[in-house]
Design a protein that fits this description.
The chain has 225 residues and is α/β, with parallel strands linked by helices. The protein is 32% helix and 27% strand.
Amino acid sequence: MEAHTEMFITQDGSHSLISLDYGVSYHSKYGAVQESRHVFIEAGLYPLLLKKKPLQLLEIGFGAGLNAFLTFLEAERLQIPIYYEAIEAYPLDAGQIAALNYPETAANGAYPGIFEELHTAPWETDVELGLFFTLHKREEKAELLQYLPRFDLIYYHAFVPGAQPELWETEALSIMYKSLKPGGILVTYCAKGEVKRRLKTIGFSLESLQGPPGKREMIRANKPG
């Protein structure tokens, strides 16, 4: 099912989208690139890249492809292989993708072809982009997933609980827990008390970290192991 969106410019100059289906934005109005780097790259990816080992990563909510693009840039920069599985039930169309300015705002104009390929790559198959990044996109709903514990890191980038409550219920979050290897990490911008309680009940240990601009805190959830 195709996404219905309107584009806007965030305060760091990077684009984001408003979902007309859910009535919420894909990123913070204070800065799309800034938020994604803070929540997903700095709080999630960097601690694992310090180990200098290949990573298996799952993203819930591929959306505009910004998190995948930033992760590709880090894989290339550090020359560490990353397998990136992305879930998206409502893909963008070609016109929406072409309008986004992430190659300029996130990569100083580098890799414009790669950003486009992230979106045009076929679904349900592995696609190698560059020397260190493998993408596998799945067009389905996250709450229906079933995985063995094989991921090192999950970017939990679903819309806010008020828009997609089913993705913040215990059942959906339990799927994420089961999908992580022991010692794996889940990072999300959402720090609502009810979400924290559910994550703890499932078995995660939680760190409340400083949030990106405009948000007081975010969550890093660790699976023991």
